[in-house]
């Protein structure tokens, strides 16, 4: 079967699908992953066919909120929609759609008859259990949470409105709004798999039956891959270090964040590893090492703690390794995941990015490393996650949907 996975966004929005795609390929399927050019090497390294989506997910400098952010998002989606139809060829048997690409992929399903399956990394369906992930972590009560969830979907549909209109015209489909198509999907109980752990987000009881939480899809890495020699030497040279990294976030704050990180580590009496990431973190010294991208699965189990931005993938990877965290959420769904980790007891209370200081970080590091309750909570979650098989459940859903 020829399967096309479509996703777009930051590295964390793409990497989990390389692992899912690799599992599908091992099961005998022909798998392509459509995403933006930046991640072509990531896709090909997983043994998957790369299909190009033309959009650039990076917002223009200074765009952080309000109408400017909505306009930037709409422009991104417009560009994405223009290239999406080109990525789907006549031989495609099944579309696997991320939360970002689903509002476009539904129209391709309608036009071509190709079945689709939602494969989301965040809970987007309204529920009384918690507010929308893009609105932070403070509950508004069951009624308020559901109302806010419906409002968040309406705002998302506005972002897709123009792109959907142009895509439907190109596909020779009658006009229909994004919200109308979304309602059709719900009425038909179209299946959506959520690739996160029930240790972090138990499945809400008020979701429709087609919505399932199956466990994480882990980024692909070669079984023979090893950590760089310099990193391996550093790990062996002393006590377990702390990793500090902010993924693709905070691109203009590298020097300031590096200084904060080093001061905090030394203030807490800990060795540290700075992961350069989008911010370009860097520092030198016998007690500090700077690294680039390495597989979380290889590094995280050898750490004392992880300081991170609370992206969904990094949050899950730290838990999987049984390692406690200090979270510094920046934007989007990060405050939601940060609050979830803290509620589990596997992380300290979040430090909002704008409130980060060396003193606050040093205090949090001192507590998370030396108070064993955090590590015990992380280990309990790791044991729970080990019982989940996100890729296996996705394979079964594909079989049920296609009869093959």
TrEMBL record:
Gene3D superfamilies: Glycogen Phosphorylase B
Superkingdom of the source species: Bacteria
One function term, GO molecular function aspect: UDP-glycosyltransferase activity
Domain Glycosyltransferase family 28 N-terminal positions: 3-64
Pfam families, per the entry: EryCIII-like_C, Glyco_transf_28
Keyword vocabulary terms for this entry: Transferase
UniProt cross-references to InterPro entries, sorted A to Z: EryCIII-like_C (IPR010610), Glycosyltransferase_28 (IPR050426), GlycoTrans_28_N (IPR004276), UDP_glucos_trans (IPR002213)
Erythromycin biosynthesis protein CIII-like C-terminal domain boundaries: 285-388
GO BP, one annotated term: vancomycin biosynthetic process
Annotated protein name in UniProt: UDP:flavonoid glycosyltransferase YjiC (YdhE family)
Species of provenance: Streptomyces murinus
């Amino acid at each position: 079967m020829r399967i096309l996975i479509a996703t777009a966004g930051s590295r964390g929005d793409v990497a989990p699908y390389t692992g899912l795609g690799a599992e599908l390929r091992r099961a005998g399927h022909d798998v392509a992953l459509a995403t933006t050019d930046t991640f072509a090497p990531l896709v090909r390294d997983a043994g998957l066919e790369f299909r190009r989506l033309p959009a650039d997910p990076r917002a223009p400098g200074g765009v952080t909120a309000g109408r400017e952010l909505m306009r930037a998002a709409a422009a991104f989606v417009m560009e994405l929609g223009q290239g999406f139809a080109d990525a789907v060829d006549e031989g495609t048997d099944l579309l696997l759609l991320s939360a970002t690409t689903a509002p476009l992929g539904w129209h391709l399903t309608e036009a071509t008859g190709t079945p689709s399956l939602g494969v989301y990394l965040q809970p987007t369906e309204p529920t009384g259990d918690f507010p929308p992930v893009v609105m932070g972590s403070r509950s508004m009560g069951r009624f308020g949470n559901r109302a806010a969830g419906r409002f968040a979907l309406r705002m998302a549909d506005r972002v897709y409105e123009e792109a959907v209109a142009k895509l439907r015209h190109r596909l020779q489909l009658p006009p229909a709004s994004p919200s109308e198509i979304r309602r059709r999907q719900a009425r038909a109980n179209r299946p959506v798999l959520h690739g996160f752990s029930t240790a972090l987000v138990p499945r809400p009881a008020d979701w429709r039956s087609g919505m399932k939480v199956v466990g994480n899809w882990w980024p692909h890495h070669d079984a023979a891959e090893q950590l760089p020699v310099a990193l391996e030497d550093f790990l062996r040279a002393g006590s377990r270090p702390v990793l500090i990294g902010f993924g693709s976030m905070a691109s203009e704050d590298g020097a300031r964040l590096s200084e904060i990180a080093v001061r905090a580590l030394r203030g807490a009496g800990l060795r540290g590893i700075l992961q350069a990431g989008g911010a370009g973190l860097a520092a030198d010294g016998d007690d500090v090492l700077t690294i680039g991208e390495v597989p979380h699965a290889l590094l995280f189990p050898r750490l004392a703690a992880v300081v991170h931005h609370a992206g969904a993938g990094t949050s899950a990877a730290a838990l999987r390794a049984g390692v406690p965290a200090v979270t510094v959420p920046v934007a989007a769904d990060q405050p939601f995941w940060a609050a979830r980790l803290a509620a589990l007891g596997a992380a300290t209370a979040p430090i909002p990015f704008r409130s980060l200081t060396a003193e606050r970080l040093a205090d949090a590091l001192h507590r998370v490393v030396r108070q064993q309750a955090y590590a015990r909570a992380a280990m309990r979650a790791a044991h729970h996650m080990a019982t989940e098989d996100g890729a296996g459940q996705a394979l079964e859903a594909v079989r049920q949907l296609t009869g093959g």
